[in-house]
Amino acid sequence: MSDAIVVKGLVKSFGTARALDGLDLSVRAGEVHGFLGPNGAGKSTTIRILLGLVRADGGTARLLGGDPWSQAAELHRRLAYVPGDVTLWPHLSGGEVIDLLGRLRGGLNARRKADLLERFDLDPRKKARTYSKGNRQKVALVAALASEGELLILDEPTSGLDPLMEEVFRECVRQERERRTVLLSSHVLAEVEALCDRVTIIRDGRTVETGTLAELRHLTRTSIEAELAQPPDGLAELPGVHELRAGDGRVRFSVDGAALDPALRRLAEAGVRSLVSRPPTLEELFLRHYDRHAESVG
């Protein structure tokens, strides 16, 4: 399978601050690819380079086989971009904005546009200045999803949407994966898990992990809180059990996936009165992975 995006050794500095420090990114044609990292990691700078808005200082970037800097106008007719904070022409209606963006991108599918307006519950007759943040986001999403672009670049696309509209977005992206490529930058782990074939995690302008979600499961650690009839025997000595705190008949700890079964057996032996488990948040996943990454290079 060919690659829709190929980035190698990308470098970009703003004054003395280095935003990208040799970043690599490969997005295969036809996949939904998650692009993850905390604030300041370099995601937005990478996207701006891919869109031809900023020129890289070093490395290479190829988008749909072309150079995003020297061929920006041509490439923009083959892609659609949705930012996390949408600004619209205030005196145009939502429908007029959608049509204008469609003309810039080589046309819209009228039937798909009508379907998307209904699914996102968006009134296209209202002036853009009257829209809430969520509705401005819907305008950009409808324009992108109704376009004929081969590539969708989505940067925090569900910002401002309510949970119902977030699920509509996910359904739309699942349908799109059959016919085009999606680069999805998001802080919402559930969104990434539900949609992405592969993910790239970056930190400090560098790629630190790339792979399928199954391949990255080693990054996750489950948090456990339990009320017990008696103190658990040998729980602290189990490999893979971390941050154990016990007292007043309760225990709290985090556990690696491989150690979850033996840890639960120790709890059962102590008599479980209540138990709550939860997967790590995206922030926790980042922090744990980065701690391991720092140890490996330290």
Gist?
The protein has nine helices and 13 strands. With 298 residues, the protein is of the alpha/beta class.
List its salient traits.
298 residues; Rossmann fold; alpha/beta; Alpha-Beta Plaits; single chain; globular; 4-stranded antiparallel sheet; 6-stranded mixed sheet; 13 strands
Description:
Keywords: Antibiotic resistance, ATP-binding, Nucleotide-binding, Transport. The chain has 298 residues and is an alpha/beta fold. It folds into 2 domains: 3-212, 3-Layer(aba) Sandwich (Rossmann fold); 221-279, Alpha-Beta Plaits (2-Layer Sandwich). Helix content is 32%, strand content 31%. The protein has helices at 43-50, 72-76, 94-104, 110-119, 133-145, 163-176, 189-195, 260-270, 282-297, and strands at 3-14, 17-28, 32-36, 58-63, 79-82, 151-155, 181-185, 198-203, 206-212, 221-228, 241-247, 250-256, 272-278. Strands 5-6-7-3-8-9 form a 6-stranded mixed β-sheet, with helices on both faces. The chain has a 4-stranded antiparallel β-sheet with strand order 11-12-10-13. A 3-stranded antiparallel β-sheet has the order 2-1-4, with helices on one face. The chain is globular and about 70 Å long. It starts with a strand and ends with a helix.
